[in-house]
Design goal:
This protein has 3 helices and 3 strands, in the order αβββαα. With about 140 residues, it is of the alpha+beta class. The longest helix is centred in the C-terminal third of the chain and has 25 residues.
């Protein structure tokens, strides 16, 4: 019976050490930007050096303001939910749809005659006294 080739731990350690000294890409490739002024970057995956996932990040228009808004398409690309970055046409189409929905919501509120301003904070959903917030409990206001 033949024996499997012996593994050399020191050879693996030395190989990994030498590979760690090789130059790597530090700066990302600019992939795109959005209508808020954010810029999106990516360093692609390179399985030959052991990098399985791409590194993706963004630079906000105002430096150190990472709580800034960002389009849903770009957020899904950053989180790896989609492989390809969104096109400018796709982002602008969805932005126009969002604006139309906002205008329609204002028109519906005005038509009903019961304008209730949205309360900002933990919940941004408008609270209306005629509807129950918790099922089975009426609001006293």
């Amino acid at each position: 019976m033949s024996q499997p080739p012996a593994r050399s731990i020191w050879k693996a350690v030395l190989t990994n050490f030498i590979n760690s000294l090789r130059p790597r890409q530090i700066r990302g490739n600019l992939v795109g930007s959005d209508y808020f002024g954010n810029k999106y970057y990516e360093i692609p995956a390179d399985p030959s050096i052991g990098k399985r996932k791409a590194s993706r990040w963004f630079e906000p228009q105002k430096k150190d303001d990472f709580q800034q808004e960002m389009p849903a398409e770009w957020e899904s690309w950053l989180r790896g939910r989609r492989k390809e970055p969104p096109s400018d046409d796709e982002v602008m189409r969805n932005y126009a749809l969002m604006q139309t929905k906002k205008q329609n919501a204002i028109a519906v509120d005005a038509k009903g005659g019961k304008m209730t301003p949205a309360e900002k904070g933990m919940e941004t959903f408008p609270k209306r006294p005629e509807f129950e917030m918790t099922p089975g409990y009426k609001q006293n206001k």
